[in-house]
């Protein structure tokens, strides 16, 4: 376990050591959006859902694409898509459809030259190391997913500051179990 966790911590550090250039634009797009939508498939989708939850706790209007109660995407909306490969067909189709209606697409991917990246208005490139340990200690995109979760949690901290939110104000929007 220690070997894998040490590997992951180092891979995440390397992935995030140079903050993506587009982070400020990403934050501005979120703040300017009328509604936010998040999409991803599989484990990338789980990372996207975690981000969506935090955005809701910040008081933003956020939906996950594909849920039964998700409204249609309209002009002025922002759609954030998380995809390790950037080649997931449903993600590419989602990007193409929502851009046609005038929404902005922001993609977070390890492949900035992918079809999804080409269909996006803004690309956040998070590229973990591609070394020999990856397949054994962090298989199938694990380092990307973990780095993306930490990156998006850092974006939440930036949004908290810009929106004047605190942990206390977010806690009021946290799910309460009765």
How would you describe the overall organization of this protein?
Helices cover 50% and strands 13% of the residues. α1 crosses α7 and α3 (42-57) packs parallel to α7. It has a five-stranded parallel β-sheet. The protein has one domain (2-164): Glucose-6-phosphate isomerase like protein, domain 1 (Rossmann fold). It has 178 residues and is an alpha/beta fold. α3 links the parallel β1 and β2. It contains eight helices and five strands, in the order ααβαββαβαβααα.
Secondary structure topology:
Elements: H1 2-16, H2 23-32, E1 36-40, H3 42-57, E2 62-64, E3 78-83, H4 89-100, E4 104-109, H5 115-118, E5 122-125, H6 133-137, H7 142-163, H8 167-171
Parallel strand pairs: 1-2, 1-3, 3-4, 4-5
Helix pairs in contact: 1-7, 3-7
CATH superfamily: Glucose-6-phosphate isomerase like protein, domain 1
How large is the radius of gyration? 16 Å
Order of helices and strands: HHEHEEHEHEHHH
Mean model confidence by pLDDT: 92
Distance linking N and C termini: 37 Å
What's the number of extended β-strand segments? 5
Coarse shape: globular
Proportion of beta-strand residues: 5-15%
Helix content, binned percent:
40-55%
Low-pLDDT windows of residues: none
Strand order of the largest sheet: 2-1-3-4-5
């Amino acid at each position: 376990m220690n070997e894998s966790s040490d590997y992951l911590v180092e891979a995440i550090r390397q992935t995030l050591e140079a903050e993506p250039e587009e982070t400020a634009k990403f934050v501005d797009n979120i703040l300017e959006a009328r509604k936010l939508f998040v999409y991803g498939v599989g484990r990338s989708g789980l990372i996207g859902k975690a981000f969506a939850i935090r955005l809701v706790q910040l008081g933003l209007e956020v939906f996950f694409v594909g849920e039964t109660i998700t409204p249609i995407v309209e002009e002025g909306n922002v759609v954030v898509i998380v995809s390790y490969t950037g080649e997931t067909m449903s993600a590419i189709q989602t990007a193409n459809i929502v851009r046609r209606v005038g929404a902005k697409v922001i993609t977070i991917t390890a492949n900035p030259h992918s079809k999804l990246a080409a269909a996006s208005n803004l690309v956040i490139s998070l590229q973990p190391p591609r070394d020999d340990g990856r397949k054994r200690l962090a298989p199938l995109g694990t380092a990307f997913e973990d780095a993306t979760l930490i990156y998006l949690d850092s974006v939440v901290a930036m949004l908290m500051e810009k929106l004047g939110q605190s942990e206390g104000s977010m806690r009021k929007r946290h799910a309460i179990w009765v």
